[in-house]
Every structure is written in C-alpha cells, then in structure tokens.
Design goal:
Blueprint: E1 3-7, E2 10-13, E3 18-25, E4 34-39, E5 46-51, E6 58-60, E7 68-73, E8 78-83, E9 92-98, E10 108-113
Length: about 110
C-alpha cells in the first residue's frame, strides 16, 4: 500500500512560480513511473507530466513544456513539479499518481491570477 501526499500549492500571480511535492509513505516510490495530473473546475482530469523510475526520462503535455519540470528524489521518496511562468489556465487541483496503479494523492490547489 502506498500513500501519496501532495503539498506546495497556493495562490500566485501570472508569471510566478510554485514547486509541488508528492511524498510517498508505506512503500518506496522508486519502482514506479510517477505522474502529475491536474483537474480544473468543470473539466476532466488531464495528464501533466511523468518521470521514469530512475528519473532519466520525462514527458510533458504540450501546454506546459518549457515551463514545468518534473523531478524525483528516490532517497527522499518524493516527486516534485517545478512550475514556472504560471498562467491563469494552469489553475487546477494537482494530483500525483503512481503509474498504472490506483495510488493517488488528495490533491493540492493551484490558483493563478491574471
């Protein structure tokens, strides 16, 4: 069993930055590809970024490429999402997920004002 806890969300003006964290407990995250998803009000949950088990490979949805960076620290059992140059359309609840499992965090709210 894996528990995932996100943190680091908040309110920021457009152009600002936030760093989200996803801490795992109960089991090591190093054996999982890890994902970040987000869900804006009235919209479906969408994929944002993924990182391989070693951290050597990453992928992003086109809308965040060049602005967001996913990383992980397997020693700390934590996955990060550095978000720069935030836009109002990035406003959403952000969730981390262990790929191909039912392990999800509770989400952290990110609000970007124009």
């Amino acid at each position: 069993q894996v528990q995932l806890v996100e943190s680091g969300g908040g309110w920021v003006q457009a152009g600002g930055s936030l760093r989200l964290s996803c801490a795992g407990t109960g089991r090591t995250l190093s054996s999982y590809v890890m994902n970040w998803f987000r869900q804006a009000p009235g919209k479906e949950r969408e994929f944002v970024a993924a990182i391989s088990q070693s951290g050597s490979r990453t992928s992003y949805v086109d809308s965040v490429k060049g602005r967001f960076t996913i990383s992980r620290d397997n020693a700390e059992n934590t996955v990060y999402l550095q978000m720069n140059n935030l836009k109002p359309e990035d406003t959403a609840v952000y969730y981390c997920n262990a790929d191909r499992t039912g392990y999800w965090g509770q989400g952290t709210q990110v609000t970007v004002s124009s």
